[in-house]
Design brief:
This protein is an alpha+beta fold. The protein has one domain: Cytochrome p450, CATH 1.10.630. It contains 17 helices and eleven strands. A four-stranded mixed sheet has the order 1-2-7-4. A three-stranded antiparallel sheet has the order 3-11-8. A two-stranded antiparallel ribbon has the order 5-6. Helix 10 packs antiparallel against helix 14 and helix 14 crosses helix 16. The termini are far apart. The structure holds protoporphyrin IX containing FE (HEM). The site of protoporphyrin IX containing FE has 21 residues, from helix 14 and helix 17.
Length: 413
């Protein structure tokens, strides 16, 4: 094995997810990376990359690595408690960014807020917003799906879901979408600091929203459920609610924006699959995994940090080093999937790991799929003959995913 590896060119020469070539066709680069072993050192990011699905699932499940950004060797030092701003108060020790035990408590007590029943109720809340967006769009000959629809949906649907009243939307929108940048290791210190300041402002607004909601608690949304959870569970407090809401808006916005554009693109590139994919919410749920597999838009995967010097998959990993799990490397691997270049809306995924696995499985999975189904069904209902107006130019600037600069569609009405 090591002889074969020494014949291969260094990974830095053949793998660059920010390159134009990757944005057009990531498959050759992903396969090159996977070829180099189970845990590969990637110097440009000063990170280890975990390449194999079984290893990634074991890591997800056993959580032997840390999810705490402050455990990263290049993270800014954790400030002392008397110097904490609201951001550190929310970020350190609470909710999803807490230690494993508290994280599990948060997931357990908040599970009712993310049940299928609640998602059904939320669909009813979001539907009028989706209709309104399409009404405002009217019947143009062509339009940019990104600008007119995709960019609007995630924020609207998540703030509605949580129950942030519309009067707060303009202010909070400006500052909340950057929350996940506060712990993103691939961006500059300046950008992270600016995201931290945004988050401080967002927290002030959220505290007002929560105070207002305490006066009128029962409103059939996440915030109402979370306030009830707080009342009934010792150890779950307002800072947990704040961190959770920030995480929901942060984690739910970028992801669904990326998913919106690739869903429309993938279905229009595989028109014969639209019927099977859009038959029902359940069939879309499976088709969505195929959309994301077929498009392989992910760049960096999921970050973890070594809590101490340790041996991982036969490599010596030092305390604080970053380990990136990259499940998408398998997406076009013929050793993993039959006929990987074919888009098959009914492909069977077992296991389906698009939304993660184990204790940190995506909280918003059901919501994300329902929101996408709702919007894309409406698109095809209003414009049954819609098609791509051009091959969209890729945007290589996003640090997490390959996206489009715009997505021009011809309505053909
Ligand atoms: C297409 C859409 C989405 C995809 C593909 C996706 C995928 C994922 C994955 C793979 C994880 C695990 C990350 C890890 O292990 O580090 C995750 C976690 C998470 N997701 Fe999503 N997600 C999506 C949409 C959403 C939405 C809409 C929300 C919120 C409403 C959301 C909220 C979260 C949160 C809060 C976590 C952290 C869970 C925890 O640490 O316990 N996601 N997501």
């Amino acid at each position: 094995m090591s002889e074969i590896l020494s014949e291969l060119p260094p990974i830095e020469e053949v793998y660059d997810p920010n390159s134009e070539a990757y944005s057009i066709d990531p498959t050759p680069q992903c396969l090159e990376l996977a070829k180099r072993g189970r845990l590969v050192w990637y110097a440009p990011w000063q990170a280890w990359i975990m390449t194999r699905m079984l290893d990634i699932m074991a890591c997800w499940k056993a959580e032997y690595l840390s999810s705490d950004f402050y455990d990263w060797e290049f993270a800014p030092p954790r400030p002392p408690k008397d110097q904490w701003s609201n951001f550190e108060r929310a970020f350190i020790g609470h909710s999803l960014v807490a230690d494993h035990d508290h994280h599990r408590l948060v997931r357990r007590v908040t599970a009712p807020a993310f049940s299928r029943h609640v998602v059904d109720a939320i669909q009813r809340r979001i539907e009028p917003d989706v209709q309104k967006l399409f009404d405002e769009l009217g019947e143009p000959d062509s339009f940019d799906y990104l600008e007119k629809i995709a960019q609007e949906i995630p924020f609207i649907s998540i703030t509605r879901t949580i129950g942030v009243p519309e009067k707060y939307w303009p202010d909070i929108k400006q500052v909340i979408l950057t929350f996940t940048e506060t712990w993103n290791p691939t961006i500059s210190d300046e950008r992270r600091e600016s995201a931290r300041q945004d988050s401080n402002r967002a927290i002030e607004i959220l505290k007002d929203v929560i105070a207002e909601r305490r006066l009128a608690p029962e409103q059939d949304d996440f915030l109402s459920v979370l306030l009830k959870v707080e009342e009934e569970n010792e150890g779950f407090e307002e800072w947990d609610i704040i961190t959770l809401v920030l995480a929901l808006i942060g984690a739910g916005s970028d992801t669904t924006l990326v998913a919106q554009q690739w869903s429309v693109y993938a279905l229009l590139k595989n028109r014969d699959q639209i019927g099977a994919a859009m038959e029902s919410a359940d069939s879309f749920s499976n088709a969505f995994s195929e959309i994301m597999r077929w498009s392989t838009n992910s760049k960096m995967g999921f970050a973890r940090y070594a809590p101490q010097d340790m041996q991982i998959l036969d490599q010596a990993v030092s305390k604080g080093q970053m380990v990136l799990m990259m499940p998408h490397l398998k997406d076009h691997d013929p050793g993993y999937y039959d006929d990987p270049e074919t888009f098959d809306a009914k492909r069977v995924f077992n296991p389906d790991v698009l939304f993660g696995y184990g204790p940190r499985f995506c909280i918003g999975a059901a919501l994300a799929k329902r929101q996408l189904y709702l919007t894309i069904s409406e698109l095809f209902k209003r414009f049954p003959n819609i098609e791509l107006a051009e091959e969209p130019e890729r945007d290589t600037g996003d640090h997490n995913a390959v996206t489009f600069k715009r997505l021009m569609l011809n309505t053909n009405i």
